[in-house]
Design brief:
Number of strands: 0
Shape: globular
Largest sheet: none
Length: 416
């Protein structure tokens, strides 16, 4: 009980250096942050780069986002096989080395759209295999309470990095073009070096947490299973929204009059809101037994996405900008809840397995390809209608909400 009510520094220290084994967690968290630096620039900030330097419109950015999403699914699903064959540390070293090479190619090809696209897609393929391995390093062998804290720290590490790096990406685009690619080169190389140096970071097979002495009650298992079902249905929809949104952002009417530095700062509002939500969820457990929150969050997400992408009829520019930022904040809050639910419930029900981490990331990839892909097709079919892509994506999210609601009703009927 003392650990649960200790001060913040002792809690963080216990998660970086867990008492249940000699395996340190801080290298995994550090690699998570370092790899997030590169992916923030090359998977999110890149759309403002292509708009600024290549004069790409919404359709081209959506197509690039869909291509990245397609390889994201592949990389996520092969992660477990890599870990089984080579181990997490060796696999991560190779992945970070590959990401470094991709960023170097992107740096050399920063003025060549064709070569740059190949480098970006290859970078996404490698990055997507990285996440399930790091998630396993962080969560393996932890009981439900320890895993909640570890998932909370993990989410804070990558989300803070994403928010900060994306916010400054516009400044890099304007004033240090090469920095968009040189910074990922350095961050990925440092991550590879960490994996090379630290040899005792992998979980020991067959060693469970010292706290796992009492099995959860059947009702708690039922709630966790229902929550995981709802989260896994809603999770792809969140990345339908996220990857469609980041590809559309540079083309939104409220963004067109802003320079890249201003635009990425404003466009990072939802990321900042997600950080604060991760802080709340990581510090509490009230949401562990409330699966209905995931369904409610998915419904709110739909309206928030529409609010970000749809200008108010007849409203002044400042009003539309404020409305977009407010919708971003709401969006970040619900995205944080759904993401945390999918990762936590999947890991707690599988004892932090790499395989389930791969499923979690593959669902993210499915959303990343489905959202931009369908938005691209809609904009191609109705090029004169700037709302076609938003309408198509909203329909996907709406269908997801209905599916999640049906799943919840069926689970409730089985219980009764």
């Amino acid at each position: 009980m003392a650990r649960r009510h200790g001060d913040e520094s002792s809690l963080l220290n216990s998660e970086l250096y867990p008492l249940t084994s000699s395996r340190p967690l801080w290298p995994a968290y550090a690699c998570e942050s370092l790899s997030s630096v590169g992916t923030s620039l090359l998977s999110v900030g890149i759309f403002f780069y292509t708009t600024h330097y290549f004069a790409w419109g919404m359709k081209q950015n959506l197509l690039l986002a869909a291509a990245q999403g397609a390889v994201y699914v592949i990389g996520s699903l092969v992660a477990a096989r890599l870990a089984d064959r080579f181990g997490q540390r060796r696999s991560l070293f190779a992945i970070y080395a590959c990401m470094t090479c991709c960023a170097l190619v992107a740096l050399a090809a920063k003025s060549s759209p064709a070569v740059l696209i190949v480098a970006l897609v290859a970078h996404t393929l490698a990055a997507s295999a990285n996440w399930p391995l790091v998630e396993n390093l962080v969560t393996a062998g932890a009981d439900a309470h320890a895993m909640s804290r570890r998932v909370g720290v993990y989410n804070l590490v990558w989300s803070i990095t994403n928010a900060v790096i994306f916010a400054i990406s516009g400044t890099l685009i304007e004033h240090w073009r090469a920095g968009m690619f040189l910074i990922p080169v350095v961050s990925h190389a440092l991550a590879a070096l960490l994996m090379l140096i630290h040899r005792n970071i992998e979980p020991i097979a067959g060693v469970a947490s010292q706290h796992d002495t009492i099995a959860p009650e059947p009702e708690l298992i039922r709630k966790r299973t229902l929550a995981l079902t709802l989260a896994r249905i809603a999770l792809p929809a969140t990345y339908v929204v996220i990857f469609t949104l980041v590809a559309m952002m540079p083309s939104l009417s409220v963004m067109k009059s802003l320079d890249p530095a201003q635009a990425t700062l404003i466009a990072s509002a939802w990321m900042v809101a997600r950080v604060f939500m991760f802080v709340l969820l990581g510090a509490t457990t009230w949401w562990h037994t409330r699966p209905s929150l995931l369904l409610l969050s998915a419904a709110i997400m739909l309206f928030a996405f529409i609010g970000v992408t749809t200008p108010l009829a007849g409203a002044a520019y400042q009003t539309n900008l404020l409305a977009m930022m407010f919708s971003q904040i709401i969006l970040g809050v619900v995205l944080g809840l759904i993401y945390s639910g999918s990762l936590y419930f999947g890991m707690v029900l599988s004892d932090g397995s790499t395989e389930h981490g791969g499923y979690h990331e593959a669902l993210i990839g499915a959303g990343c390809v489905a959202g931009p892909g369908i938005a691209y097709l809609a904009q191609s079919q109705w090029p004169a209608n700037p709302r076609a892509g938003v309408t198509a994506v909203s329909a996907i999210v709406g269908a997801t909400i209905v599916t999640a609601g049906v799943a919840a009703l069926r689970a409730d009927r089985k219980k009764s």
